[in-house]
Specification:
This protein is of the alpha/beta class and 188 residues long. Helices cover 54% and strands 7% of the residues. This is DNA-binding protein.
Amino acid sequence: MPQSKLLADTNSYLRLANNIRPLLCVEFGAERYCLYVLRETSLEIQGSSRLKHKFYWALDPEHCTERATSPSISRKQKKEIDAAFSVIWEHVETELPGPSKTDARYLAHGFVLGFPIVTDDRDMRSLADVFSIPTYKTLELLRIMVDAAHITLEKVLAIVAYWQYNTDIPADMHIDMHSIFPGDTPSE
C-alpha cells in the first residue's frame, strides 16, 4: 500500500513540530499516513522575524533537517503545479483575497498530487473548497494520529494546553475539540 501523504501548512507545522518528534516523514496507521511540508515553510520561517522570534526552536538543526525532505515531484507534475498555482492565485486576486502565495502554492500541490492539506486557516480552507482540494484541520490530524495509536489523547491535551499558553489557538478550536474528540476532553 502506498503512503497517504499529507501536506501541513506553516501554521499547522509550527503548532505540532515542537511537540511531536519526529513529525515529518514518519508513517503511521494502517493507511500509512505521512506528513510533509513544502520548502516554502522553511522560507516563511526564515523570512519572518515574528516567526523566528515566537518559534525560535524551528531554527534548530533538528527541525531544519526534518523540513528538508519534501515529496518527490516529476518535471511534468512541477509544470502542472505551476499551472494550478496560476489559476488558484488568479482566483485569490479576483475573488477571494486573504490567502498568501505560499497558501496558493500548497493548494496547487494538493490539487495536482491529490494530497490533503492540513491547515487551520479559514481563507485557505475556503479556497481549497473552491477547487475541491481536501483539507484537514490540525485537530483532525491529531484525531487521525490518536486513532492510529501514533500519539495518545494525553499528548493531544498537552499540545492544546501549549497552544493556549503560547496564544496560538486555531480558529474554532474550542468547538472543534468537542466535535473531533467528543467525550474525550475535560469539561471547561
